[in-house]
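Practice set, problem 2.
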Amino acid sequence: MSSERAEGAPVAVRAEMPAMSVAPPWIAESALLEQAYAMARVAHGAQRRPVDDRPFLDHATEVAGFLNEAGFDEALVAAGLLHDAVERGALSEEELCSEMEEQISSLVLALTEDAAIESFEERKAALRRQVGAAGGRALTVFAADKLSDIVGLRRGIQESDRRSVEGRIGASVGGMATHYRESVGVIEAERPGSAFLPALRAQLDGLVAEAGGSAQGGRGDP
């Protein structure tokens, strides 16, 4: 695996992503990634992702896969595998910090929402500020995460229908598009050379079109 590039190589988003029942081959290239993948697998267990009803572990692996494809270092890829393990999974902050080196655990915690903030809009805004303050590496994982989020939401709409997806996530597609647009705005402002921006813009445009051009506030977590 190559060392981290300044902004990463361009990333291609595939039209379809098969469900991942086993770890992708590149995980075996690194003992660190094997450990992070094993921790993510335990943390997420049988969880399924509401937007596309796939195993939640697939999302963690997709985020890490985008980072790996862009040529980022294994510590950043490991953070991608674990980015939701505390916020959405069963991994505790103490377990994370005891098992992973500080540069990885600090990234994961920078990407973890404050569950004490009840309002969806306020919680997401606080996360965007938190990630922006954490710096470029956190923003890079955040960008890969948002790309997977948007792709996953579009995938769910294509595989079932918009109404079914909105019922599962408890939010409108337009509301989620607003959140993602604001997230992409943070990345554009703070990391304008990000490898993920071209794909993020294209996927967001597609999502807005599928939302009927609307982008309104809403509740829900994909």
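Problem 2, part (b): a different protein.
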Amino acid sequence: MLRWLAILFGAPLLSTGAFLTPHTVTLTQPVLETDDDERTDLYGNDIMPAVAKYSLDATGSVYEIHSPQTEIPHLASPKS
């Protein structure tokens, strides 16, 4: 009987406490403030913005515009 009373009154109290308790977020790593133009990775290499640019061809199909340094892999000829 005591177990049922504990469940009956304890569960709502625990769930109410879980919702009312403020949840704080702590940083695990420091945030480095950098300019958007000068970003580097862990090895010191420059990071270019990863924003794709798109355009329309003559038929109205959308295609992605690649930078001149981007190497686009081509599929091999089909084998039968």
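Answer key, part (b): The radius of gyration is 28 Å. DSSP finds one helix and two strands in the chain.
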